[in-house]
């Protein structure tokens, strides 16, 4: 028989699974919760009773529709409780800072964006993030002291063991622990993850992979990274660096990558490299936005370069698909909306993945655009705020 501590760990895991399902799907009946989690109705009933008593879920007055449209009394639905207080999401990109204040259901109450150089000075970036968080909390009429949790996105691999960004990616962040530093400034717990993971979380809860239990989110921007959702949950790996496909080697004698290796995927297919390849053929300065516009207009040169890059990225993704067998690949970042890039990735997955694996996976553009990482940071803060203290 399991020990008391083992039973409590199991019960805590079941609570997390139930809350995660409600966070993803919205209000559900007890029967739907049992189907969605795989738990028995008796177990669900006990968990719901405990969570209602703890104020984490409520029974809604909107009873919804009968299951599968049948007749009879519609079921009472269980929903996440809004709770008191707020959470903050912080998205630190290489050249931007976005901060959002949200209630504990993830509904954004206020947000602001500013342009900054995040890479060169981590201390200054964290100072500005803290100031922005306090500013929007007060502007929204909320006492900053009522912020329960902060979720923060960083644009680099984040080592969960050391709580630091991997050295070599962000020059101005050496020896900084981002979560500890921001928590010290705000006096609130801070949880940190990388941009690809939080983009994956956002698209899974509110975007293109919503409803898919197994998904890969690929951010194609200044670098290339992937966030992985398995069994409906974000998969970070042993140290938090699962999904770093940008550092898959595609050429032994290739260019030196910022990670220190040679010939990494992002040295040949990330946005800066593609812009550099295209720029000599165009009189106007090229940006990722302009390249997407030219792609949509059918520009032959842009379409060729993006299609080739898509096939290169897709070759790495095909290997990942063979290992993970996802339902959907979601393409985000500054170039993720490119049709030519998407077509190249699709072609490579079809060519290199196992036929059944390739048939099972859709390749789609992200729905949340450049707000994905901010939405993911808010979702991370909401999820952590619901965990027992």
Automatic annotation (TrEMBL):
Coiled coil: none annotated. Residues 16-62 form the HTH marR-type domain. One of its GO terms (molecular function) is DNA-binding transcription factor activity. Gene3D superfamilies: 3.30.420.40, Winged helix-like DNA-binding domain superfamily/Winged helix DNA-binding domain. Belongs to the ROK (NagC/XylR) family. This is ROK family transcriptional regulator. It comes from Nocardioides silvaticus.
């Amino acid at each position: 028989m399991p020990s008391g501590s083992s039973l409590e760990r199991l019960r805590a895991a079941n609570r997390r699974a139930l809350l995660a399902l409600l966070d993803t799907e919205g209000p559900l009946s007890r029967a739907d919760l049992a189907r969605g989690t795989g738990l028995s109705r008796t177990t669900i009933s006990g968990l719901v009773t405990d969570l209602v008593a703890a104020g984490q879920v409520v029974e809604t007055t909107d009873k919804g529709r009968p299951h599968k449209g049948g007749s009879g009394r519609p079921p009472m639905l269980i929903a996440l409780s809004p709770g008191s207080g707020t959470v903050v999401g912080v998205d630190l990109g290489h050249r931007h800072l976005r901060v959002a204040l949200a209630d504990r259901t993830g509904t954004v109450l206020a947000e602001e964006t500013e342009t900054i150089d995040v890479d060169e000075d981590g201390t200054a970036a964290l100072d500005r993030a803290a100031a922005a968080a306090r500013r929007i909390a007060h502007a929204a009429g909320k006492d900053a002291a009522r912020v329960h949790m902060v979720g923060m996105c960083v644009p680099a691999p984040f080592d969960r063991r050391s709580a630091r960004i991997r050295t070599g990616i962000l020059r101005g962040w050496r020896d900084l622990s981002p979560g500890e530093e921001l928590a010290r400034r705000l006096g609130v717990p801070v949880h940190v993850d990388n941009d690809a993971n939080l983009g994956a979380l956002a698209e899974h809860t509110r975007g293109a992979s919503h409803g898919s239990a197994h998904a890969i989110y690929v951010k194609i921007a200044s670098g290339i990274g992937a966030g992985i959702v398995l069994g409906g949950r974000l998969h970070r790996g042993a140290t938090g660096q699962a999904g770093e496909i940008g550092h898959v080697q595609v050429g032994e004698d290739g260019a030196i990558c910022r990670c220190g290796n040679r010939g990494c995927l992002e040295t040949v297919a990330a946005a800066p490299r593609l812009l550099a390849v295209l720029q000599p053929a165009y009189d106007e300065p090229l940006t990722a936005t302009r390249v997407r516009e030219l792609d949509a207009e059918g520009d032959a040169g842009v379409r060729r370069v993006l299609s080739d890059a898509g096939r290169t990225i897709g070759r790495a993704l095909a290997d990942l698909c063979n290992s993970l067998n996802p339902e959907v690949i979601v393409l985000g970042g500054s170039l993720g909306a490119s049709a030519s890039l998407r077509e190249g990735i699709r072609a490579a997955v079809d060519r290199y993945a196992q036929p059944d694996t390739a048939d099972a996976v859709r390749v789609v553009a992200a729905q949340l655009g450049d707000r994905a990482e901010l939405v993911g940071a808010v979702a991370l803060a909401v999820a952590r705020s619901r965990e027992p203290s």
